[in-house]
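Lecture 7, part B: from sequences to assemblies.

Below are the input chains for today's worked example.
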Amino acid sequence: MRHIRIILVLLFALAGLGTGRAARAQAVEAPAVAAASTAPASSALPAPPKPPRTLRAYWHLFAAFAIVWLLVFGYVVTLARRFRRVEEQLQALGA
Amino acid sequence: MDAQMDTGSLAGTRRWSVILGLLATVSLVAGLWMIFFYAPTESEMGVVQRIFYVHLPSALVAYLAFGIVALCSLGYLWLRDERLDAIAVCAAELGVIFTTAVLTTGPLWGRIAWGAWWVWDARLSFTLLLWFIYVGYFILRGATENPERGKRFAAVLGIVGAVDIPLIHMSVQWFRSQHPKPVVLKPEGPSLAPEMVQTLLVNMLAFMLLFFCLLLARYVVERLSRRIDATRLLRAA
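Predicted structure of the full complex, as structure tokens:
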């Protein structure tokens, strides 16, 4: 489980590095790829205004990845604790 | 003899969990690299669209988890096999974790894309309902004095709760919705750049591997703790 924690910390670092890279790429106004939007509004509703490209978007991106990885990391930690407790109880029962 | 066989199978399960964990780690690293270094920036929403690569896999894994809960609960009600109940509990726990990820990453994306953290749209509301149903699943298990009855009630709720999954999936077709319609799984093919589809597929694989790794590890803990409880009861009797 200790190895899993180290790996998750490395994943966090990679996510942070990636967010920084994305921020730099957009800061220099790299030409956006004209890919189809992944969030087209329903045709029955008026199209929402195009979101402004502000620094706030990077915070949201960082927060989303941080939350997902914290959830996974937290779950792995609780699982490791539960496993250790169960092992101790099994040893105590065997003794 | 049964206990020995069970211990052997649990050791095998644990081994598979480690193998899947390693595969999940490799694919998660590859997926993260693709999200930030390979997939292009979406033209309308900009960088915040990259949340899509964790939002959608989390949602699909949550559906899978609750589907497993429903199947195992059905099996438990029919066969009264404790192992099926154990799998259902573990899958429900992971389903709640991944649904929490969906319900937190969605508003972070929506705030930038739609200008609102939350809208009471059919898909969002049904997803929140799904989360409440499976949180209720755990409350129900612990609420009854008779544990066997708690398991039966929870199994029924686990089956009923899964009915919400097709509702979530179809809600964007059936109701006026702010939430986007499917962009990958649709008859005319994905409406995304090929690099985006590849990135999504790698991340979906990574999340699936992560889910099965955690499911197996959690299953081992669940079975061992049930064995401890049973041994204590036997000794007390």
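Note for the exam: The two ends of chain A are 25 Å apart (CA to CA). Keep this in mind when comparing with the next example.
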